[in-house]
Design goal:
Blueprint: E1 2-6, H1 12-26, E2 31-35, H2 38-42, E3 46-49, H3 54-63, H4 67-75, E4 80-83, H5 85-90, E5 91-93, H6 95-101, E6 109-114, E7 125-129, E8 138-142, E9 147-151, E10 156-161, E11 164-170, E12 173-176, H7 187-193
Parallel strand pairs: 1-2, 1-3, 3-4, 4-12, 5-6
Antiparallel strand pairs: 6-9, 7-8, 10-11, 11-12
Helix pairs in contact: 1-7
């Protein structure tokens, strides 16, 4: 299996490290690559869109010629996980902030998000999360996190925190408000790899 991490901006080394740990924990052979070119993108079996700054990632995906291929792959069933900014980019609606900043969304999941709903950097926090499909709570790390405000169609909420949706799934696509790569828990990366 070849795992790709979009490597234009954001928590790239952390996702690579966690992906390698998840593969080891599963006993699966594979490699994890940083994706910056079309050839790299076309060679992966699954893809991670990391946290960072959604407007910047969106613009760089366009500039590097990756945007349309990510959309095609997502629509054709390539498993993908978007975390924090990646969650925003997977959504079909990004709210007033996305419109104001001209953030072009990948529009792969039937959901609306509110960018930076949890406030500024200093309002970051950790909380145990009960995620559908996991037996034990997952350590959620929230940093300027978005909220999933609405889902429809094929998208469904698989985790809530204090009554608010923080993780959704649509087919082979996973959207997370939080940062699993900043923990020592590989289970959500494993969940993605099991979709391959």
């Amino acid at each position: 299996m070849r795992v790709g991490v979009i490597s234009v901006q954001g928590a790239v080394p952390e996702h690579i490290r966690m992906s390698e740990a998840a593969l080891r924990a599963m006993g699966r052979k594979g490699e994890v690559i940083a994706v910056r070119r079309l050839d790299d993108l076309r060679a992966v079996d699954c893809l991670i869109v990391p946290g960072g700054e959604s407007t910047t990632i969106s613009k760089l995906l366009r500039k590097l010629g990756l945007f349309d291929e990510v959309v095609r792959m997502g629509n054709e069933g390539t498993p993908m996980m978007g975390t924090c900014a990646g969650c925003v980019l997977l959504a079909k609606e990004g709210g007033e902030q996305a419109e104001r900043t001209g953030t072009e969304l990948l529009s792969l999941m039937d959901m609306a998000v509110d960018r930076n709903a949890f406030g500024r950097q200093r309002e970051s926090f950790e909380a145990p999360l009960h995620i559908e499909g996991l037996d034990l709570p997952f350590p959620g790390v929230f940093i300027r996190a978005p909220l999933i405000t609405r889902v429809w169609g094929g998208c469904r909420v698989v985790c809530v925190h204090q009554g608010e949706a923080v993780m959704a799934r649509q087919g082979s696509l996973l959207a997370l408000s939080f940062h699993p790569e900043l923990t020592e828990d590989p289970r959500l990366h494993q969940m993605l790899f099991e979709l391959v």
